[in-house]
């Protein structure tokens, strides 16, 4: 099994002036190094934050991860692995290992009813607060006793789905595994057919949608693009439409 040709077009980057090219590559490498540092080795899931420790205002070199993540972060990690491979930051073997571990954990997460909430029949959606060190639900904020309000987020789920689809295209060898969990996703559950808008969040504890919706061409537009043609058609009606319960 071998990877497809990188989607990173080296001919394009080579047309840049040397100083600009070098600056972009350094920035990209630093970004990848941070993302890599935020990833938990056991699960292949990323942290939401990475803290660099200081002593008297001077970096000590010690870093720590916050044991919290979201579907957006997980999807972004998949895309980042693809980008790191394309830019030559990681080898083919490391790329396989990283993708395999992350995708395996996502599939395993769909079997956990606490973290993958059933919506209709055999489909469901992930909660928005996840403990990346274990791949389980995060019930309270790290290092506190404050309980987390458990909810499902439209845009977070949409980002995970979109980044997963992109990864499956870049690495066809993983497309079947990715489809294993994408086929369980029920993004249309978040759509309000009476208004034509996506609900922002679903409150798991109260089993109801939060009283606000996305009613403009905002970050929610990605959700329309990932659903069926009927929902996609509703996207064309968004301009200048608002509801009393709209927030954004």
Average pLDDT figure: 87
The percent range for strand residues is 15-25%
Please give the largest β-sheet. 3 strands, antiparallel
The order of strands across the largest sheet is 7-10-11
Question: How would you spell out the order of helices and strands?
Answer: HHEEHHEEEEEHHEEEEEHH
**Please, how many helices?**
8
**Percentage of residues in helical conformation:** 25-40%
What does this entry look like structurally?
It is built from eight helices and twelve strands. The chain has helices at 10-14, 18-38, 71-86, 92-109, 154-170, 175-182, 221-225, 229-234, and strands spanning 50-55, 58-65, 116-118, 124-126, 130-131, 136-137, 151-153, 191-192, 197-199, 201-203, 208-209, 213-214. The strands form five sheets. A three-stranded antiparallel β-sheet has the order 7-10-11. A three-stranded antiparallel β-sheet has the order 8-9-12, with no helix packed on it. It has 248 residues and is of the alpha+beta class. The radius of gyration is 20 Å and the shape is globular.
Keywords:
39% helix, disordered N terminus, three-stranded antiparallel beta sheet, alpha+beta, 248 residues, single chain
Question: How would you summarize what this structure contains?
Answer:
The chain is built from eight helices and twelve strands. It is an alpha+beta fold. It is globular, with a radius of gyration of 20 Å.
């Amino acid at each position: 099994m071998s990877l497809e040709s990188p989607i990173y077009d080296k001919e394009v980057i080579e047309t840049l002036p040397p100083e600009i090219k070098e600056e972009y590559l350094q920035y990209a490498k630093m970004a990848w190094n941070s993302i890599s540092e935020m990833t938990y080795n056991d699960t292949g899931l990323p942290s939401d934050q990475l803290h660099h420790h200081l002593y008297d205002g001077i970096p000590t070199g010690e870093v720590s991860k916050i044991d919290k993540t979201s579907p957006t972060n997980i999807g972004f990690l998949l895309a980042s692995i693809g980008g790191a491979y394309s830019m030559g930051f990681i080898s083919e073997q490391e790329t396989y290992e990283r993708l395999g571990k992350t995708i395996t954990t996502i599939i395993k997460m769909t079997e956990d009813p606490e973290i993958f909430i059933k919506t209709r029949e055999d489909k469901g959606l992930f909660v928005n607060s996840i403990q990346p060190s274990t791949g389980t639900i995060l019930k309270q904020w790290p290092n506190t006793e404050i309980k987390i309000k458990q909810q499902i987020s439209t845009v977070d789920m949409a980002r995970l789905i979109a980044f997963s689809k992109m990864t499956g295209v870049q690495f066809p060898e993983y497309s079947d595994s990715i489809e294993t969990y994408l086929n369980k996703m029920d993004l249309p559950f978040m759509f309000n057919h009476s208004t034509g808008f996506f609900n922002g969040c679903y409150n798991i504890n109260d089993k109801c949608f939060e009283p606000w919706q996305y009613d403009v061409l905002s970050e929610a537009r990605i959700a329309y693009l990932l659903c069926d043609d009927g929902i996609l058609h509703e996207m064309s009606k968004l301009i200048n439409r608002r509801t009393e319960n709209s927030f954004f």
